[in-house]
Design brief:
Layout (H helix, E strand, L loop, with lengths): L13 H4 L18 E2 L13 E6 L7 H10 L2 E6 L5 H10 L5 E5 L12 H7 L9 E2 L2 H15 L3 E5 L3 E2 L3 H8 L7 E6 L7 H8 L12 E5 L13 H5 L1 H5 L3 E10 L8 H22 L9 H20 L6 H19 L3 H23 L6 H7 L3 E2 L23 E2 L43 E2 L28 H4 L6
Parallel strand pairs: 1-10, 2-3, 2-6, 3-4, 8-10
Antiparallel strand pairs: 1-12, 4-11, 5-13, 6-9, 7-10, 8-9
Helix pairs in contact: 4-13, 10-12, 11-12, 11-13
């Protein structure tokens, strides 16, 4: 069997290697064996963090956590704003906190830039189910802008932090950053409130065993070793660190953080919007758990996985009478909406999306390799973006290559009894066995939504022959030339 993450190898043969697994293809409750963990006691070196990047969409008060962490760790703070973030509110918060080093950037409605064009993926969007466009979000765009600016400013280690994340301690952040010695990306787990899709929330609440995975909402990235991008689709973060998971270069520091509560079943269209991305990510990661990479994601594989996904949803609906009556109807409507959307997804469409995604990944790598070091003002001009804040900021350009500090070896994160991760939280989780549903708690609703949204409305056959592997051509990172001006160094990329 081909092992995911290894170098060039012979083209896979799904018919022979996966035939024995066809009966076991299903959505898995956990992908934890794909993530390695370093215990706090193993960390004997602290690596510096260059910047915290916040894709902000909520009112300014939600930036308190980011300001506190940036001040404590002594790094730059980049806030990419749109939607409900108002300039006056941001300025007031920064003034009250006496914080002058934030870079606050406004992202205009409908913002586009050719560095962010992904024509192969755009060409397939018209074939996606209509519900995939029931919500609009600019989360992927903001994160990709963060990656581009990090490249332009010479930042090596960055921390993506969504504005609905709370309870991050400074030691946990430092431990997570210091995992970037052996790993390309590392994160903390959002288990309180669990960071899951609508379908996975419903699975947990009806008695299913459901883990949480690493997320882009609290993720440190080594920009010198990472060359991925965030596609404009649900579970964009899973696709971003897919290659890290495949090569066992995705880490977890063991820190747990909190996501603001919301009712995942309040709008059934949320489940429909998530369905394609949820199927895509869960299917790709199920292959990794079997030691197989994206090249095995043929239409034949997706045919089996889609059947398994639909059974997964149907079984949730069958167990709906186990949840509290006050949320049962909403849960059922959401699951039924997801199932209707799932039926419209064809296996060939999933196979095509994966191939287009890998094609765009190579193109993104070439673009990023051509970007040189430049000043902050030059970087923002190149991206056609404006700062909201007027005052001067500390020099945020890193002018020399960073030296990685070697870390002690890490050990695989052994699968433990997952019940400690599935503990009922507040009075929301009331699946059988939790005890809380019997006491008649109420579902809490927050005024904010999950980091995967903050979206607003208009916010069977044999396995096919495997495609030959696309071998990614990773361009060399552009290094600043000694003595050249920042503007001259920027001329290497066509902006």
């Amino acid at each position: 069997m081909t092992t995911a993450g290894l170098g060039p190898a012979a083209a896979p043969d799904p018919a022979s290697e996966m035939g024995e697994l066809s009966e076991t293809i299903r959505q898995l409750p956990t992908h934890r064996k794909l993530v390695s963990q370093t215990e706090h006691t193993e960390l004997d070196a602290i690596l510096p963090l260059d910047a915290i990047i916040v894709p902000a969409s909520r009112p300014a008060r939600n930036l308190e956590q980011a300001v506190t962490l940036a001040r404590a760790i002594g790094c730059a703070l980049l806030i990419l704003c749109s939607r409900d973030v108002q300039p006056a509110g941001v300025r007031q918060l920064l003034a009250e906190r006496s914080f002058d080093d934030a870079i606050v950037v406004n992202l205009p409605d409908g913002y586009r830039h050719k560095l962010l064009d992904f024509p192969a993926l755009t060409s397939i969007e018209r074939d996606l189910p209509e519900p995939c466009f029931s919500y609009l979000t600019d989360l992927s765009t903001k994160r990709n802008i963060g990656l581009i600016l990090a490249r332009m400013l010479g930042w090596q280690r960055i921390f993506f932090l969504d504005d609905d994340i709370r309870d991050i301690s400074l030691p946990d952040l430092r431990d997570t950053v210091s995992m970037l010695g052996p790993y390309s990306a590392a994160g903390m787990r959002i288990s309180n409130f669990p960071d899951n899709s609508v379908a996975c929330h419903a699975h947990r609440m009806t008695g299913g065993l459901q883990d949480v995975f690493i997320t882009g909402a609290a993720l440190v990235v080594d920009c010198q070793r990472n060359t991925a991008f965030f596609p404009n689709i649900y579970n964009e973060d899973w696709l971003f660190f897919y290659d890290h998971a495949a090569s066992r270069k995705l880490g977890s520091s063991g820190g747990r953080v909190t996501q603001l509560r919301y009712n995942p079943f309040a709008d059934p269209q949320r489940a429909a919007w998530q369905e394609f991305g949820d199927v895509l990510a869960e299917g790709l990661y199920a292959l990794l758990d079997h030691g197989m990479d994206w090249r095995y994601a043929t239409d034949g594989y997706w045919l089996h996985f889609l059947d398994a996904r639909r059974r997964f949803l149907e079984e949730i609906a069958d167990r709906a009478d186990t949840v509290r009556p006050d949320i049962r109807e909403q849960l059922l409507r959401s699951v039924e909406t997801a199932l209707k959307c799932s039926i419209t997804i064809g296996p060939g469409l999933l196979e095509r999306y994966v191939l287009h995604w890998r094609q765009e990944l190579r193109s993104w790598q070439h673009r990023m390799a051509r970007i040189g070091l430049m000043s902050l003002d030059a970087a923002l001009r190149a991206l056609n973006l404006d700062r909201w804040d007027d005052g001067p900021v500390t020099d945020v350009v890193r002018r020399g290559p960073a030296v990685l500090t070697e870390e002690p070896p890490t050990t695989p994160f052994a699968l433990r009894d997952l019940h400690d991760l599935m503990q009922s939280d507040g009075d929301y989780d009331s699946y059988p066995g939790s005890g809380r549903g019997k006491r008649g708690g109420r579902t809490k609703r927050a005024s904010t939504v999950s980091h995967h949204g903050a979206p607003g409305i208009r916010e069977r056959g044999l396995f096919a022959s495997a495609r030959r592997s696309f071998r990614s051509t990773r361009g060399e990172y552009a290094q600043p030339q000694a003595g050249a001006s920042p503007e001259a160094q920027a001329e290497g990329v066509d902006l």
